[in-house]
User: Fold this.
Amino acid sequence: MTGATTPARGRKRSEQTRLAILTAAYELTTEVGYPDLTIEGIAARAGAGKQTVYRWWPTKADVLLEALALKADLKVSTADQGSFDAELDAFLRDSAALMAFPGVVPVLRSLMAEAQRDADFRRRFQDGFLIKRRAAFETIVERAAARGDKPAHLTAAFAADLVFGLIWYRVLATERLLGQDDITAIRRLLNEHPGEE
Amino acid sequence: MTGATTPARGRKRSEQTRLAILTAAYELTTEVGYPDLTIEGIAARAGAGKQTVYRWWPTKADVLLEALALKADLKVSTADQGSFDAELDAFLRDSAALMAFPGVVPVLRSLMAEAQRDADFRRRFQDGFLIKRRAAFETIVERAAARGDKPAHLTAAFAADLVFGLIWYRVLATERLLGQDDITAIRRLLNEHPGEE
Amino acid sequence: MTGATTPARGRKRSEQTRLAILTAAYELTTEVGYPDLTIEGIAARAGAGKQTVYRWWPTKADVLLEALALKADLKVSTADQGSFDAELDAFLRDSAALMAFPGVVPVLRSLMAEAQRDADFRRRFQDGFLIKRRAAFETIVERAAARGDKPAHLTAAFAADLVFGLIWYRVLATERLLGQDDITAIRRLLNEHPGEE
Amino acid sequence: MTGATTPARGRKRSEQTRLAILTAAYELTTEVGYPDLTIEGIAARAGAGKQTVYRWWPTKADVLLEALALKADLKVSTADQGSFDAELDAFLRDSAALMAFPGVVPVLRSLMAEAQRDADFRRRFQDGFLIKRRAAFETIVERAAARGDKPAHLTAAFAADLVFGLIWYRVLATERLLGQDDITAIRRLLNEHPGEE
DNA sequence: AACTAAGCGAGACGGTACGTCGCGTCTTGCA
DNA sequence: TGCAAGACGCGACGTACCGTCTCGCTTAGTT
Assistant:
C-alpha cells in the first residue's frame, strides 16, 4: 500500500499538459539556453498556465530534470558481461551515447549548475540522477570484486569518483567530450595489474 | 607599450572602492549565497554606486572571481621536489588547503555554475583560473616525464583530467571533500608500475 | 404557472448550502472587508464548492445583496400615520435603524461601490434595493400631496433625491451617520410653509 | 522653508513621464473602464515601467485622482457676487460644468467607489477632492450668513450635505445628472423665506 | 587659478520575470 | 441533476534586479 491518502477527489491531473510542459521546457532550453528559460516561457509555449507548472514542479530545473528522463534514454547497461573490462566498456559507451543525444549536454550542465545554487534541488538532482548512475557503476565494480576481477587498492567508491569525475570535468570545465581514446585510457587504468604482486 | 592611450586624464580609479566592492561581494556570497548576490546588494554594502561596479566588471561572477584572488591564496607549489610523487603530494595538499579557506568552496561552486550559464564568463573563468591551475599540474607531470619518473600510458592531459575531475566532482556532486586517503589513493594510482616496459 | 419547465429532475437545490453561502459572505465581509472577499473564500468558509456559488449568483456582490436581505430588516414603514411629518419621521427612523444593524453600513458602501463598476449589477442593485426604498418614500410624499399636506414646489422625485442624497452622501463621503438632529433638520426643511399660496 | 530634506541627490523625476502616466490613466479609464484599468496597462500605454508608477502613486485610484486635476478644470468660483443666490447659482453651474467634461463622471464614480473599498485612499480622496469643494461651498454660505442673506435654521454643514448629497446621489444611484431645473429647485429650497417670521 | 575630464554615490528610468492569487470553467465521483 | 473537490488556462498583482541614464560633487591633470 502506498499510504492511506484521500481517495483522489476532484479533477485529475492532465497527462497531456504534463507532457506539453516537459517538451516545451526541453525545447526552449536548446533554443534560448537555460538562463533565458523561464517558467512563464515554458507555460506559454506549452499552452498552460503558470500555476499549473508551479503546482507540480518547484523550480524550472526540476521540470528539466523530469524532461531529461522523457527525452533521453537514461538506461545504463549493467548486465553481466563476463568480465569487468567488458562491463566497464559498455558502461562508458552508454554514457557517451547519452551525451550524444541532442540537447543533453547543455541540460546536464544546467542541472549541475543549478545544483550548486539551490541546495534543495541539489538533493533532488543527486537522488534523481547522480546516485542512480553511480549505483549502476558501483554494481559493476562490486561484481568484479566478487569475481576476483578487480584491481587491488581500488574501492568501488573511489573508482566511481574517478570515472564520473572525468566525465563531468570534461563537460563542465572543457570543450572536449568523452571519446574512444578516453574510454580506452580509463579501461587500461582501472584494469592494470589487478594487484598481482 | 600596450597602446598609446591618452595619459590618464580625470579622476583616478579609487582603489579603496575596488577593495570595498570585492570584499562586499565575497562576504555577501558567504552570507546570502550566490543566487541572492546582486550587483545592487554589492554596491549598497560597499557604499558604492551601481555604475561603479558596472564600470569595472561585466558580471557579478567576475567580481567574485577577482575577489577570490584577493581573499584566498591561489598559489600552487610547482617547485622541483626531486620526485613526481613528492610534487604530486605537494600539489594535492595545496589544492586541499585552498578549499579549506573559509568561503572558498561555495565561491568555486558558484563560479563553475556560472561558467555553465554564461559562455563569455566561462572563457574568463577558464583563462583566469582553470587553465592556470592545470598548467601548474601539467608542469609537474612533464618534469616527471623528463625525469623518467612518469607511469607509462599516462599523458599529462589525461592525468590532469583525472585529478581535476576527481577534485571538482567531489565539490560539485558530493558533500565529500578531498581527504588524506584520497591523496594517497591518487598518488598510488598515478605512480603504479612506472614505465614497466 | 410561470413556464412549462420540466418538473425538476435530479437533485434539488440545497437550502442549507444557500444559507451557508449567504452567511459566509456576510461574515467574511465584516471580517476582511469587501475587496478581500472572494468567491473562493466564501465557498471555502461555507464548505461549498465554487461551482455552487457560480451556479446561483453571478457575482460576489449579488451574494452580498441577497445576504443583506437575510441579515438585516429591510422593511420600511409606509403606514398612514395621519400626517406627512409623522410618516417622514417614521421613515427616517427606519432608515437610521437599518444602518445601525451591525455590518450593514460597510455592506451598503460595498454594494454602491460595486454598482459603479459593474453596469449589470448596478441595475440589479437599483431594482433590488434602491428603487424599492425610493418607492416607499415616494408613497409617503404622494399621500401627503393627496392630503394637501405637502409643501409647494416639492415634487416627490426631488424630495426623494434630497433625502436619499443626504443619507447616502453621509455614508459614502463622510464618517458622520444620520442622527436625530439631521432628522429634525430634514423634517423642518420639507415641511416649511406648506403650500402658502 | 519646506523642510530640511536631503538636497536632492541622484537623477530627477521625469515630468514628461509623469504626464504620460496621468494621461494614459485618464484615457484608459474612458476606454476600458475603471475595473479593467490596470497599473500594467497604464505603464505600457505611457511607455513607462511599472515600478515608476508604483514609485509615485500607491494605487491606480491615486493616479486617476491626480489625472483628474490635470484633465478637468476643478476650479470653483467663490467670488463675491453680491447675493447668496447668485453665488449659489454660480457654484451649481460650475459643478454641472465639471461633470460635463468628457470622462469626468465615470472617473468621479470610480474614485468614490474606490473610497468605499480602500480606507487609505478614502482619506486621500476626501482631502484632495471632497473637502476642497465642500470648503468652497461653505465659504459661500458663511458669506451669506455674514450678509444676513442666509435662511434661518440652515447651517453651512447641513446645506453642504444637502447639495453635495443631491449631486452625488444623482451620479452614483441614478442616470439623471444635474440639470437646470434641479439648480432652480435647489436655489428655491435654500433661499425660501430666510427665517423672516 | 581656471578649465576639462573622468570617477564617484545616488537614484530614477524602461524593462522583465518572479511567485502568488483569484477568476471563471472544466472534469471527476459521490449523493 | 446537485454538489464538494480540485485541476485547468488566464492574467494582474506588487516586488526585485537588471543594466542604463542623468544628476551634482570630487579629484586630477592640462592650460
Q: What stands out?
A: Chains A and C do not touch (no CB pair under 8 Å). The mean pLDDT of chain A is 92. Residues 6, 9-14, 17, 43, 47-52, 55 of chain A lie near DNA strand F (CB under 10 Å from a C1').
